[in-house]
Amino acid sequence: MPLFNKKFETKTIPPRSGRCGIEFPPISEDLEDFKSIGMNLNSKNFTFVKGSWLQSNKKEDIDDFGRLNDKMKNLEEENNMHQVKIDILLDLLTEHVSELNTIKRARDY
Predict the structure, then answer these.
(1) Which of 13-22, 51-60, 95-104 holds the top average pLDDT?
(2) How many Cβ atoms are within 10 Å of 56's Cβ, its own excluded?
(3) How far is residue 38's CA from residue 59's CA, in Å, rounded to a whole number?
(4) What φ, ψ does residue 3 adopt, rounded to 5°?
(5) Where are the domains of the chain?
(6) Do residues 49 and 66 make contact, with C-beta atoms less than 8 angstroms apart?
């Protein structure tokens, strides 16, 4: 008698369209329509772009904002990485200076 027999094998799952006799229609909407959400309040147009509302009538302004926002995030990450590198270099320098001071003190005695 084999240790692992057929009862441990996975069963194939029928495709979703075949289960329960329900046929799902393919997506017919264009997803680009849902990427920009806008609203009009007292003749002012607002568009929701990457977490903030912008007042703009032109698509170019919205694209510029998105591009500048991405660049700002990249620069912040680069700045944080430079801060970490500076901290590591300062730690190494401090350790080296303390070792030199201990060697100098030992040589003086």
Answers:
(1) 95-104
(2) 18
(3) 12
(4) -70, -45
(5) 59-109
(6) yes
Amino acid present at 21: G
* Torsion, CA 66, CA 69, CA 74, CA 75, rounded to 10: 140
Paired with 40 in beta bridges are 45
Phi/psi region, residue 51 (left: phi>0; alpha: psi -120 to 50; beta: rest), is left
- Residue-wise pLDDT for 34-85, tens only, equals 667 888 888 888 887 777 787 876 767 777 877 888 899 999 999 999 999 9
As a 3-state breakdown, the chain gives helix, strand, coil percent values, each rounded to 5, of 55, 15, 30
Our CA dihedral for 61, 65, 71, 73, rounded to 10 degrees, sits at: 180
